[in-house]
C-alpha cells in the first residue's frame, strides 16, 4: 500500500484549529469558510485512515492518533516554512526587539535565535530576558516589538494567548522533606509582586500550612540555586527546569494544589512589520515544540495536561 501524501494546506488548517482552540477562528485566520476547513479535516481523516478528533463535551479533542498527527504536522509545516524562509529570508534586513520571560531564557531563547539567524542572516536581534512586569511595561511604551510573558490580567491590546500551564511545586532533584522540623515550608521565591509567589502563599494559607520566606531572589538562577541546595521549595511551571531541580507530583508530601497560569505572546502593535512577524512565527513554533516535548516526556501526561492546551479544540 502506498503511503498517504498529506496536503500541507490541510495540515496547516488542522494545526491552526488546534492552536486557536476553534476551527471557526482558524477559518478566519486562514481566510477560508468554516465549511471549507471542516471539509479539509474530513479529508485529513480519510487520508490518515483513523479518527483524529473525538467528541469532548460540547467540543472536540484530539484522539491519540490526532496527537501523533499534530506532532508530525508541526514538523512538516516547519520544514516547509523553513524552506520558504531560506529561499526568501536573505532578503529581510533590519532590526527586531524581542523580550522573553526568565523561565524561557535558557530553554527557548537559543532555539529561537538559532532558527531565526539561519533563515534571516541580515536581521539584527536585540533580546531582553527579564521579569514579567518589565517586559509588559516595555511593550506598552513601544520599546519591544514582541514579548513572551505570563498573563497577569494586564489589558494590553495586542496579546495572543498561547497556552495554559499548571503551576507546580519545584524541589531538588534528590527528593527531600518539604517541611522543616517545625512543620513549616521554606519558600524560595522572587521578590513581590510575583504571580508564582502569590500562587504559592495563597495555596499554603488555604491549606493551613505554615510557610516562611527562606530565600528571596531577583533572578531565576538564584531560585534554582536555592532549591537545588535544599534551602526551600519554589513554584514555577514544568517548562524549562534545569537538571538540578524537579517538578513535584500533584499532592506529593501533602502539598496543596496550585492554580494555572496563561502564557501569552505580546505585540507592540496590531500589525507587525515583516521582520518582527518572521520572528513571531519562529517563536510560536518553538513554544509549540516545547509544549509537545513536555507532554511526551515521562510523566508528561500528568505534568503537562493543562500545558497541552494546544491539544484541546472546540467545534467551529
From TrEMBL:
The keyword Nucleus does not apply. The keyword Lipid biosynthesis does not apply. GO terms for molecular function: DNA binding; DNA-binding transcription factor activity. Residues 6-63 form the HTH lysR-type domain. It holds the Pfam family HTH_1. PROSITE patterns: HTH_LYSR. Keywords: DNA-binding, Transcription, Transcription regulation. Belongs to the LysR transcriptional regulatory family. This is HTH-type transcriptional regulator YofA. The gene is yofA_6.
Amino acid at each position: 500500500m502506498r503511503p498517504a501524501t498529506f496536503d500541507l494546506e490541510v495540515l496547516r488548517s488542522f494545526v491552526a484549529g488546534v492552536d486557536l482552540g476553534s476551527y471557526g477562528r482558524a477559518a478566519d485566520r486562514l481566510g477560508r469558510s468554516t465549511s471549507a476547513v471542516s471539509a479539509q479535516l474530513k479529508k485529513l481523516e480519510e487520508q490518515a485512515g483513523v479518527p483524529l478528533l473525538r467528541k469532548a463535551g460540547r467540543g472536540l479533542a484530539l484522539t491519540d492518533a490526532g496527537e501523533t498527527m499534530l506532532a508530525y504536522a508541526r514538523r512538516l509545516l516547519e520544514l516547509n516554512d523553513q524552506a520558504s524562509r531560506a529561499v526568501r529570508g536573505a532578503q529581510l534586513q533590519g532590526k527586531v526587539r524581542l523580550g522573553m520571560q526568565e523561565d524561557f531564557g535558557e530553554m527557548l531563547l537559543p532555539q529561537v535565535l538559532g532558527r531565526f539567524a539561519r533563515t534571516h542572516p541580515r536581521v539584527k536581534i536585540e533580546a531582553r530576558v527579564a521579569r514579567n512586569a518589565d517586559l509588559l511595561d516595555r511593550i506598552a511604551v513601544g520599546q519591544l516589538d514582541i514579548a513572551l510573558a505570563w498573563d497577569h490580567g494586564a489589558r494590553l491590546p495586542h496579546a495572543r494567548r498561547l497556552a495554559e500551564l499548571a503551576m507546580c511545586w519545584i524541589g531538588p532533584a534528590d527528593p527531600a522533606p518539604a517541611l522543616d522540623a517545625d512543620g513549616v515550608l521554606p519558600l524560595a521565591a522572587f521578590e513581590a509582586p510575583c504571580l508564582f509567589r502569590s500562587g504559592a502563599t495563597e495555596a499554603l494559607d488555604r491549606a493551613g500550612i505554615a510557610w516562611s520566606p527562606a530565600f528571596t531572589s531577583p533572578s531565576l538562577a538564584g531560585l534554582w540555586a536555592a532549591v537545588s541546595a535544599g534551602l526551600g521549595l519554589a513554584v514555577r511551571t514544568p517548562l524549562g527546569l534545569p537538571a538540578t531541580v524537579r517538578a513535584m507530583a500533584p499532592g506529593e508530601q501533602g502539598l496543596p494544589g496550585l492554580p494555572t497560569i496563561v502564557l501569552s505572546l505580546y505585540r507592540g502593535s496590531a500589525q507587525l512589520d515583516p521582520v518582527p512577524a518572521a520572528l513571531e512565527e519562529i517563536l510560536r513554533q518553538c513554544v509549540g515544540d516545547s509544549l509537545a516535548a513536555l507532554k511526551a516526556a515521562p510523566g508528561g501526561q500528568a505534568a503537562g495536561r493543562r500545558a497541552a492546551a494546544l491539544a484541546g479544540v472546540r467545534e467551529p
